[in-house]
Amino acid sequence: xxxxxxxxxxxxxxxxxxxxxxxxxxxxxxxxxxxxxxxxxxxxxxxxxxxxxxxxxxxxxxxxxxxxxxxxxxxxxxxxxxxxxxxxxxxxxxxxxxxxxxxxxxxxxxxxxxxxxxxxxxxxxxxxxxxxxxxxxxxxxxxxxxxxxxxxxxxxxxxxxxxxxxxxxxxxxxxxxxxxx
Length: 181
Hints:
The protein is mainly α and about 180 residues long.
């Protein structure tokens, strides 16, 4: 599946701007992680883009979240992508690198977006690792971003500060698409 095909699926299934932005952000973080780990950048980006494809349909039925996405995707993506999508909603144990990456990136994207939105100019390019780390330590800030899930990135031998840098860099690359202002 190409990025364009994944974006088309998102447009067909997600009507909420925030959810679309979240999907773009997770896709960007996953692509940057793949680059860092010498993995398949396109596959990892597609995984990040599509991980919440069913969210609007399953938001009142969280037990089916991710299961429905895998069903919707059918044979359009390989099993690694489907497994990562299942693992991000704890429908599968975290085993493969792509699963661990998505599990952590999903949560970190929310923390980053929240950190950008409280900045005066709302520019992701001006968000520093130091500033994000401070927000990470503040448990009252962006409570929905599960810090323990973000820390799972250590299983890929990536330090937290490095993960923050990788994620910010990935999001900066698509900052015009994110429309965070």
